[in-house]
Amino acid sequence: MSGYTIPGMNERDADKVADLLQKQLSTYNDLHLTLKHVHWNVVGPNFIGVHEMIDPQVALVRAYADEAAERIAALGRSPLGTPGAILKDRTWDDYSVERDTAQAHLAALDLVYSGVIEDTRKCIDMLEDLDLVSQDMLIGHTGELEKFQWFIRAHLENSGGELANRGARTEKGAARSAKKK
């Protein structure tokens, strides 16, 4: 701790906000690494479209990590961007799909995005009475994450509106179900 924080915010609230943002930072770092993993391991007829669709999202999520880290620093705290921090903050399993088809990876990524978005929305709720500036930052991030999940789901959706990974609870299960359809 540096001995200062945002003007108008007390130290206790700054600590709470920094802790919430640290979890977001770890989530974003994990997500951009997962997206890069998919980018390198996607195969099949839709390879190039998915391969090229992923990179702008990697850049966007890396920028979100940077914003979260810089906000933590502005609060007078030290952002942790190490692999150890990701593992310490992680409440989810490591991405489980390796080399596979575009549909398989997109089905698994849909579940990843659902988890990230759900956790981020919880964080947004917790920031309501603590820090509206940090809350606003995460609201903006969430809108873009939700839009990208829509891009993913457009690849998984049939003409009747059903997702190929419907009912799947694991990434590998989602990948398997998407390959069957």
TrEMBL record:
Spans through the membrane: none
Entry-linked PROSITE patterns: DPS_1
InterPro entries: DPS_DNA-bd (IPR002177), DPS_DNA-bd_CS (IPR023188), Ferritin-like (IPR012347), Ferritin-like_SF (IPR009078), Ferritin_DPS_dom (IPR008331)
Domain Ferritin/DPS: start-end pairs: 19-158
CDD domains referenced in this protein's UniProt entry, alphabetically: DPS
Top-rank lineage group of the source organism: Bacteria
An MF annotation (GO) of this entry: oxidoreductase activity, acting on metal ions
PANTHER family xrefs: DNA PROTECTION DURING STARVATION PROTEIN (PTHR42932:SF3), GENERAL STRESS PROTEIN 20U (PTHR42932)
Family: Belongs to the Dps family.
Protein name: Ferritin/DPS domain-containing protein
Species: Mycolicibacterium pulveris
